[in-house]
Design goal:
By secondary structure, the chain is of the alpha+beta class. A three-stranded antiparallel sheet has the order 1-5-6, sandwiched between helices. A three-stranded antiparallel sheet has the order 3-2-4, covered by helices on one side. A hairpin with a 4-residue loop joins β5 and β6. It is globular and about 55 Å long.
Amino acid sequence: MSKYSFKLLMVLAVVTSLFAFNSCNKDESLTNSEDVSNFVNETVYNFQRDGNCGKFGCYEFVFPITIVFPDETTSEVESYDALKETLKAWKEANPDATERPSLSFPLEVVSEDGEIISVASREELRELARECIRGFFKGRGRPGHGKGDFCFKLVFPLSIAFPDGTTMEVEDRRDLRSTLREWKAANPDAEERPTLAFPITVEMEDGTQVSVESSEALQELKESCSADD
């Protein structure tokens, strides 16, 4: 074999090796990206399923909510988009983690008929979910499979009506959260819950705002969201 032929073979071998190496890296990158996406979608789905929350459930999370990572660090998130970005960043930094983040309690939810509820534990959230007669899995499909995260978000300021007939205006989500938790601490055995004082304004998933005049109208709105998908 001539020196020229030998050099040509060596060059071809190097080029082939580089091509194979780059292809493997691309395949691995695509796989990792898909793994992260699946992790994010499934984690959000599990959070919603536990409380029958979101577009297909009876309740909506009142953000901000706090999530707890397996190393016991926490992160407060203001929306579903922020939740997904936080989960994505954590999974990319911890690709081999087998445990999932969890919800931190207490947290707040609003029901489809306007009750606003401070939930003390995961067990309490699941008990609340069992009160819901809406089938969470009906028409939902797989986690993240072209489905929306929420039906509506509360627009502030708004007023809360308490079981004793009093009302209180809250300026934002944190004000709502602290007011609900203070009321629950002072009324641990109350059978009735605070409710939204109608009319209220809500923001839909597409960003439009809707005025809701009653608990019945809010329930119809929630039902229409799940019917749309």
